[in-house]
Each structure stands twice: as structure tokens, then as C-alpha cells.
Amino acid sequence: MLETKLSADMLAHIQQVQAIHGIIETVELGQVFATSTVVSLLGEDQILKLLQRHIHKDWGDLEETDWYQNELSLLMGNRIVSSYHINNEKIFIITEANRSYTTIMMAYEY
After folding, report:
1. What is Dmax (Cα atoms) for the chain?
2. 19-38 as b/e: b if 16+ CB within 10 A
3. For residue 41, what are the CA distances in angstroms to 3, 34, 36, 61, 90?
4. Which of 8, 74, 83, 101 has its CA 20 to 30 A from that of 65?
5. H or E element: which one contains 13?
6. Torsional sign, CA 84, 24, 94, 63
7. Burial level of 65, CB count in 10 A (0-12/13-18/19+)?
8. CA nearest to 81, candidates 68, 31, 89, 100
9. Closest among 79, 56, 75, 59 to 67, alpha carbons compared
């Protein structure tokens, strides 16, 4: 999925950086928190599906530059953000820079 979201130049740059620093295949989540709104709207099964997408670097409905930023953030130790549209609602999954915790929230709760 990554190749369809990023331009060839951005993908080549990420691959070059990954070759130098090592490839990171998955996101370390730390403790996972979800707002009560997310839990009531999505339920446990849907939340777990979204977390699996986030863990495996499917950043969802982000722009190309945000996909690029997430890939670099994996290498540089910065915050990682995914965005998904479910039931006409926008949901964010945010993993903090130190990878100690991940929060799942509605966009309007941000």
C-alpha cells in the first residue's frame, strides 16, 4: 500500500534512509488508550482492526507528505499519526515519540 501513496522520489528517499538506519517494519505502541467515544462508536473488534493497520504502517487517509513524515518518524523517533474514516467519522491513532503510549480518539477530540 505504501507504494500507491508515495511518489517515487519520496519512496526512494525513505528506502535510502531505511537502508542507512535499518528498516522498521512495525510500530511499537506502548500502552494503548481509547476515548470512551471511540469505544462506544467502534467497539473492540473495529478498534483492534485499526490498531493492526497502524502497527503495520497503513496510515489510512493521510496525504502523501504525512505518510512520508510517518516513515521518517519511525526512524527518527518522532510522533506517528494515522487517520481513518469509519462510519462517516474521522479517527486518529497517535503513537507518541517515546513509544510509551498510543491514543485512539475522534478527530474532534484532538
Report:
1. 43
2. eeeeeeeebebeeeebeeeb
3. 31, 11, 8, 19, 11
4. 101
5. helix 8-21
6. negative
7. exposed
8. 68
9. 59
Cα distance between residue 45 and residue 91, in whole Å: 15
Taken as a whole, the chain contains a residue count of: 110
pLDDT tens string, the chain, 110 residues long: the values are 333 344 566 556 656 666 665 667 789 999 999 999 999 999 888 999 999 999 989 999 999 889 989 988 988 899 999 999 998 999 999 999 999 999 999 999 98
* 42: Cβ contacts below 8 Å, ≥ 6 apart: 50, 86, 87, 91
DSSP string spanning 54-101? HHTT--BS--HHHHHHHHHHHHHT--EEEEEEETTEEEEEEE-TTSSE
